[in-house]
């Protein structure tokens, strides 16, 4: 195939949007490798320690868009020490020198300093899009630099970041010449923003499609913004609190009537339920509704709202909805594809307001459902079997029973058969989270049926090494495996060490794996980093190999042991 | 409990002593902060915090604390009248929107966390469940698994055996407990659990490497020993409650929702999650109070709470009437004042009409009440009840819970005698711009009882 000139190959390659396809293409021959190298514009790096920035730059010199992830997923739940790592600075430092054409950056679970943002804002003249998800380490000063210096900025999307909020003036740092914004999301910021600057910014960005406000932006301002930007498609409200008899509210009612483009609605961190009727006209067109932070909308208010949203494809909601409310969802939202029901009880002590009944109702009514995150009080095998039968299209199935080892409350059996039914009928399942009382049998099913599974989260399950072995031997496409509090030990860990080279990462905490086992693994597989995270004040040398490791994180890497590890992280 | 585990437990003893003592010394401040957090979290696991603080003190100290707590509450507007029936006392004090600085008292362990939960839950559903549960198993210990309390029943045994099969070390903590200074074995382990749960970092620092090394499931144990501890004493659901990182909810979400709940609690008049704050004014009182109607289940509770909130103003009034000053004024005198025909509790309903509190069943009242006003009965002349019938509490009560309450405490606050007379509200010149409906006949209204089916709407 070498007779194709590279000028021809390049546009052909451009049609390959998936990174996996591009990777495959680059392995065909040296010529294709070269073409891919120079034409690859979008790169995804699932682990910032898997490769060094210099290596990325050498391999793909013309990258315009980079997605980079840092900490392991369990960091979301406080299982990874705060200063574990995942620093963005080495990356921006290297890219600033080499990637003058960088336009888009999406970071997840990384530590991003203000210095990094400052450097970022000055280094890439065409920079357009910054998306930060679950990042930390920066303040509004860094955002001010982005606002002031990225003159072509189209997207600034801050999702669930821990941002130090110095003052609201960052928003006024957008120069008057900034009219290019398409998306602005600062819902995660805690501090007040400059409302005048906000209104002016919205007014001068005619292409603004997505705007998510934080809780300090009052309802009056929401009304003014909607007046200025009736073209918005994605709206996140700020504080939605007002007397329904007040003038701003009445104005809002009228303004909303003109906002016919809104398809996605979120926010309502603070809310007067009596003001909700104002948004009913919007609801008719909504395809996405996120009320997972709207703890003030409950019971009848919630159900009334849902009644208006019959085009929903994605619904994120708190369990205030209740089983009865989920029945309403099931009968109203026939297009629903993604449902997330979050717990209102964040520590899982009291009663979750939803049970297996709500889930069964959803599965009966929403036949297009393919993605589910469901925090519930209890579950039964029968319910899971019904769900599996009704919705065989699940690609993502995350079930969290608040008591992680609760059995089927009717039969007192483990939930093996229920989850077994899910993996058996959902052939396309890519992500699965288990909970409830589970024996090794469930892993037997997973290994046998979950052929497409890419990510598996296990907690408080299994009886011994066999469980983990079923998974490792069976799930051929597994990329990420995270395990906590399961009796899996060295035998399971070391049975097929080659498997880990096909995976991105393995996390095991509070399992039976020993230090000695990890050392053996590290020795056998030099391409893997085996990190032991031990927050106890211990000297590594003094430790017996038979000691069980508190937390182990292992991942494949081209880079060797990382150099920025804190003291409590040992690279074996 | 295997011998191995026993050995481990003993080795860990010193550390745990350290832990326990820190718990006792710090308990008060921890408790304070914990309570604060709980208030906005609206979560029930908090109950364990209180118990822990209490349990880590000696019995004597407990009694002192008990008094102290009462004193503190007396200082607050929702303060407690000592002669009040203890149950009502707990109920109502817990429900004041002013949260007591100290947790509930250990006089009735099964009960304290319950009312605490009611305070903090902020969740209508949970609240009502809890109330039902309370009325049924009030005197016994909770076994629902929501409460971090020792359950002696067979249920807990089962739960325990299940979980112990999973977590072989779960008994380790129990062995260590005796080293704690508290004699209160009932809540002991919860105390430990609480400590590790609320402050996992501290816990980790405290447990030294030695324990770690020698314990069979050291990692599991240390990072989640609160779970193990609880397994020994309570049913599984509660036991899992404070496992680090479980349920798998992002910390960002937790923090954000926490702030939201707190804000909703604090912001004036804003309906927070499961709360229904309304303003209460009192004639002659310099400021308004807010009460969360959802924390009450019956008129009795509301009226006794209001009675406490506003009693200070009647004290002032006493002075003006020549009654001796505050310091000599006994609680009973105070109540007599309130119970006298001086004040009427009225409310503005959805339609903007001013009604006498108690004229409709409680739920209906909750739905329609916009605000309340405690007016001088001389001003409320004209607000009367149709037939002049007295409501009898027992027949009017709706739920077993209310009946129980009533039988415990028949006392009804704000029992005004309403007299015929000129109605200053007539002519639409009310201060609120609303008119008071009144009935033509005169009579007495007992505001304490819910009067289902009795049409007590007052027509002007």
UniProtKB/TrEMBL annotation, chain A:
<keyword id="KW-0927">Auxin signaling pathway</keyword>
<comment type="pathway">
    <text>Protein modification; protein ubiquitination.</text>
</comment>
<dbReference type="InterPro" id="IPR041101">
    <property type="entry name" value="Transp_inhibit"/>
</dbReference>
<dbReference type="GO" id="GO:0031146">
    <property type="term" value="P:SCF-dependent proteasomal ubiquitin-dependent protein catabolic process"/>
</dbReference>
<dbReference type="Pfam" id="PF18511">
    <property type="entry name" value="F-box_5"/>
</dbReference>
<dbReference type="GO" id="GO:0010152">
    <property type="term" value="P:pollen maturation"/>
</dbReference>
<keyword id="KW-0833">Ubl conjugation pathway</keyword>
<dbReference type="GO" id="GO:0005634">
    <property type="term" value="C:nucleus"/>
</dbReference>
<dbReference type="GO" id="GO:0010011">
    <property type="term" value="F:auxin binding"/>
</dbReference>
<dbReference type="GO" id="GO:0009734">
    <property type="term" value="P:auxin-activated signaling pathway"/>
</dbReference>
<dbReference type="InterPro" id="IPR041567">
    <property type="entry name" value="COI1_F-box"/>
</dbReference>
<dbReference type="InterPro" id="IPR032675">
    <property type="entry name" value="LRR_dom_sf"/>
</dbReference>
<keyword id="KW-0539">Nucleus</keyword>
<dbReference type="GO" id="GO:0019005">
    <property type="term" value="C:SCF ubiquitin ligase complex"/>
</dbReference>
<dbReference type="Pfam" id="PF18791">
    <property type="entry name" value="Transp_inhibit"/>
</dbReference>
<dbReference type="InterPro" id="IPR001810">
    <property type="entry name" value="F-box_dom"/>
</dbReference>
<dbReference type="InterPro" id="IPR036047">
    <property type="entry name" value="F-box-like_dom_sf"/>
</dbReference>
<dbReference type="InterPro" id="IPR006553">
    <property type="entry name" value="Leu-rich_rpt_Cys-con_subtyp"/>
</dbReference>
<protein>
    <recommendedName>
        <fullName>F-box domain-containing protein</fullName>
    </recommendedName>
</protein>
<feature type="domain" description="F-box">
    <location>
        <begin position="4"/>
        <end position="45"/>
    </location>
</feature>
From TrEMBL, chain B:
<comment type="subunit">
    <text>Homodimers and heterodimers.</text>
</comment>
<dbReference type="InterPro" id="IPR033389">
    <property type="entry name" value="AUX/IAA_dom"/>
</dbReference>
<feature type="region of interest" description="Disordered">
    <location>
        <begin position="419"/>
        <end position="454"/>
    </location>
</feature>
<dbReference type="Pfam" id="PF02309">
    <property type="entry name" value="AUX_IAA"/>
</dbReference>
<feature type="domain" description="PB1">
    <location>
        <begin position="275"/>
        <end position="377"/>
    </location>
</feature>
<dbReference type="GO" id="GO:0005634">
    <property type="term" value="C:nucleus"/>
</dbReference>
<keyword id="KW-0539">Nucleus</keyword>
<dbReference type="GO" id="GO:0009734">
    <property type="term" value="P:auxin-activated signaling pathway"/>
</dbReference>
<keyword id="KW-0927">Auxin signaling pathway</keyword>
<comment type="function">
    <text>Aux/IAA proteins are short-lived transcriptional factors that function as repressors of early auxin response genes at low auxin concentrations.</text>
</comment>
<protein>
    <recommendedName>
        <fullName>Auxin-responsive protein</fullName>
    </recommendedName>
</protein>
<keyword id="KW-0804">Transcription</keyword>
<comment type="similarity">
    <text>Belongs to the Aux/IAA family.</text>
</comment>
<keyword id="KW-0678">Repressor</keyword>
<feature type="compositionally biased region" description="Polar residues">
    <location>
        <begin position="420"/>
        <end position="436"/>
    </location>
</feature>
<dbReference type="InterPro" id="IPR003311">
    <property type="entry name" value="AUX_IAA"/>
</dbReference>
<dbReference type="GO" id="GO:0006355">
    <property type="term" value="P:regulation of DNA-templated transcription"/>
</dbReference>
<feature type="compositionally biased region" description="Low complexity">
    <location>
        <begin position="228"/>
        <end position="239"/>
    </location>
</feature>
<dbReference type="InterPro" id="IPR053793">
    <property type="entry name" value="PB1-like"/>
</dbReference>
<keyword id="KW-0805">Transcription regulation</keyword>
<feature type="region of interest" description="Disordered">
    <location>
        <begin position="216"/>
        <end position="239"/>
    </location>
</feature>
């Amino acid at each position: 195939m070498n007779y194709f000139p590279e000028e021809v190959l390049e546009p052909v390659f451009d049609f390959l949007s998936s990174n996996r396809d591009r990777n495959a293409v680059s392995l065909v021959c040296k010529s294709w490798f070269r073409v891919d190298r120079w034409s690859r514009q979008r790169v995804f790096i699932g682990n910032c320690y898997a490769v060094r920035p210099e290596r990325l730059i050498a391999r793909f010199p013309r990258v315009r868009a980079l997605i980079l992830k840092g900490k392991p997923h369990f960091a979301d739940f406080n299982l990874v020490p705060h200063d574990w790592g995942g620093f963005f600075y080495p990356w921006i430092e290297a890219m600033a020198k080499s990637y003058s054409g960088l336009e888009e950056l999406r970071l997840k679970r990384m530590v991003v300093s203000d210095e990094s943002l400052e450097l970022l804002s000055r280094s890439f003249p065409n920079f357009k899009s910054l998306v930060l998800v679950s990042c930390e380490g920066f303040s509004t000063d860094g955002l001010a630099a982005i606002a002031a210096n990225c003159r072509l900025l189209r997207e600034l999307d801050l999702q669930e970041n821990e941002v130090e909020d110095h003052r609201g003036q960052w928003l006024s740092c957008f120069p008057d010449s900034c009219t290019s914004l398409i998306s602005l999301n600062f819902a995660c910021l805690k501090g007040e923003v400059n409302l005048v600057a906000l209104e002016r910014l919205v007014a001068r960005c005619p292409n603004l499609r997505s705007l998510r406000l934080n809780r300090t932006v009052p309802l009056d301002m929401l009304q003014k913004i909607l007046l200025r930007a009736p073209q918005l498609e994605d709206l996140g409200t700020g504080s939605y609190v007002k007397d329904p008899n007040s003038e701003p509210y009445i104005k809002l009612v009228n303004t909303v009537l003109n906002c016919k483009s809104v398809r996605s609605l979120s926010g309502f961190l603070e809310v007067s339920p009596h003001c909700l009727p104002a948004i009913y006209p919007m609801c008719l067109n909504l395809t996405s509704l996120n009320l997972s932070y709207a703890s003030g909308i409950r019971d009848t208010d919630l159900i009334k709202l849902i009644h208006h949203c019959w085009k929903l494809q994605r619904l994120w909601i708190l369990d205030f909805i209740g089983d009865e409310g989920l029945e309403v969802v099931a009968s109203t939202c026939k297009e629903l594809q993604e449902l997330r029901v979050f717990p209102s009880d964040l520590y899982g002590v009291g009663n979750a307001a939803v049970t297996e009944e709500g889930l069964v109702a959803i599965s009966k009514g929403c036949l297009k459902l393919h993605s589910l995150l469901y925090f519930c009080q209890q579950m039964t095998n029968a319910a899971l079997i019904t769900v599996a039968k009704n919705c065989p299209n699940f690609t993502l199935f995350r079930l969290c029973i608040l008591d992680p080892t609760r059995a089927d409350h009717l039969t007192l059996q483990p939930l093996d058969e229920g989850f077994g039914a899910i993996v058996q009928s959902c052939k396309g399942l890519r992500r699965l989270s288990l909970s409830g009382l589970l024996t090794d049998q469930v892993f037997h099913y997973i290994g046998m049926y979950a052929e497409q599974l890419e990510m598996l989260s296990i907690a408080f399950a299994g009886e011994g090494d066999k469980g983990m072995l079923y998974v490792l031997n069976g799930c051929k496409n597994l990329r990420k495996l995270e395990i906590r509090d399961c009796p899996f030990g060295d035998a399971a860990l070391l049975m097929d060490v080659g498997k880990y080279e096909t995976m991105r990462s393995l996390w095991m905490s509070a399992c039976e794996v020993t230090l000695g086992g990890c050392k053996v693994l590290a020795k056998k597989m030099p391409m893997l980093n085996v990190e032991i995270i031990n927050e106890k004040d211990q000297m590594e040398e003094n430790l017996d190999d038979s000691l069980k490791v508190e937390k182990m994180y292992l991942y494949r890497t081209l880079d060797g042991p990382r150099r920025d590890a804190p003291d409590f992280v040992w690279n074996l | 409990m295997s011998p191995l585990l026993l050995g481990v437990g003993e080795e860990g003893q010193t550390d745990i002593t350290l832990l326990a003592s820190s718990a006792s010394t710090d308990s008060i401040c921890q408790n304070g902060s914990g309570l604060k957090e709980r208030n906005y979290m609206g979560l029930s696991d908090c109950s364990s915090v209180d118990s822990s603080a209490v349990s880590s003190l000696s019995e004597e100290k407990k009694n002192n604390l008990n008094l102290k707590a009462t004193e503190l509450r007396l200082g607050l507007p929702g303060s407690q009248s000592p002669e009040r029936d203890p149950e009502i006392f707990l109920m109502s004090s817990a429900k004041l929107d002013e949260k007591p600085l100290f947790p509930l008292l250990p006089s009735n362990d099964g009960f304290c966390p319950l009312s605490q939960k009611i305070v903090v839950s902020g969740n209508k559903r949970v609240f009502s469940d809890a109330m039902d549960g309370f009325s049924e198993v009030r005197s016994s210990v909770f076994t629902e698994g929501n409460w971090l309390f020792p359950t002696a029943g067979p249920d807990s045994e089962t739960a325990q055996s299940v979980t112990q099969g999973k977590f072989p070390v779960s008994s380790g903590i129990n062995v260590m407990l005796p080293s704690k200074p508290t004699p209160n074995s009932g809540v002991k382990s919860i105390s430990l659990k609480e400590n590790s749960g609320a402050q996992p970092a501290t816990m980790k620092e405290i447990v030294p490497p030695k324990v770690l090394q020698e314990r069979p499931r050291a990692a599991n144990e240390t990072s989640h020993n609160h779970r193990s501890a609880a397994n020994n004493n309570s049913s599984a659901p509660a036991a899992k409650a404070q496992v680090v990182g479980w349920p798998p909810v992002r910390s960002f979400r937790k923090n954000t929702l926490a702030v939201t709940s707190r804000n909703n609690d604090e912001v004036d008049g804003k309906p927070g999650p499961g709360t229904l704050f309304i303003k209460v004014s009192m004639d002659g009182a310099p400021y308004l109070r807010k009460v969360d109607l959802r924390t009450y289940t019956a008129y009795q509770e509301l009226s006794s709470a209001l009675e406490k909130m506003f009693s200070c103003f009647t004290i002032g009034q006493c002075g003006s009437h020549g009654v001796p000053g505050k310091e000599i004024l006994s609680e009973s005198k105070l109540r007599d004042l309130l119970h006298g025909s001086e004040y009427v509790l009225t409310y503005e309903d959805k339609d903007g009409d001013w009604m006498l509190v108690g004229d409709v069943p409680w739920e209906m009242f909750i739905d329609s009440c916009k605000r309340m006003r405690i007016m001088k009965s001389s001003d409320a002349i004209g607000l009367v009840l149709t037939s002049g019938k007295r409501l009898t509490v027992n027949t009017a009560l709706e739920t077993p819970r209310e009946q129980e309450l009533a039988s415990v405490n028949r006392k009804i606050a704000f029992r005004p005698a309403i007299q015929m007379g000129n109605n200053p509200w007539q002519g639409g010149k009310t201060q609120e711009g609303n008119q008071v409906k009144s009935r033509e006949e005169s009579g007495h209204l007992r505001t304490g009882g819910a009067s289902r089916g009795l049409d007590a709407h007052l027509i002007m």
